[in-house]
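go over this:
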Amino acid sequence: MSRDLGSVMPARVTVRFQTRRCNGAVSDSVPAWYIKTVNLADVLPDVGVGFNGEKLFHDSALALFNIGGTDPTNKTALDALATQIATDYAKWLTTSFDEAFPEIIAPTVDGLTDLIEWGYEIDQVSTRRLSAPWNAQPEELAHHDPANNGCVDSTGVTVTQTPCAVFYGPPAVCVSGKPNLTRYKLCLLDGRLDIKFVSTDVVQ
């Protein structure tokens, strides 16, 4: 069932990305945000737009800036991500349903399904499946730009190509009275968690 897009669809979607300085001194500054606005009429001309409004998203993908640069070095990737967010958001709003069945069924659960209710009465049973309310989407998004890994700030920290976290775990052994801890790296690779051995470190 299609929704009345004129009442729920804004004309624009804006995505704000936090920035990171990739060179220069600590006293040098870069813009606090990189902001990309997408007109929905440009990405979905066949859908149309409604009121003259704007939907704002915040995304965790970093906009990488060099000192003196007017645009982030990964502008192309961030613009493409903002366009995809705007497109997905608009398509999400175009579908709405409230289905009722006079029986117990196992309906297909997908990204559009918000609630499934099963009813048991003395003389009847039922199943109901509903889509999410139009304003139920999250506004804080978590993405990473895998196309850029060359940003090293003044602390020597590099933006890695894959989001990773280093942790220590077993096996742990003691050598000369000092514990040895095995260091691992936990990374997100193609949507799955991957644990890799890094080294065995002696705690000083």
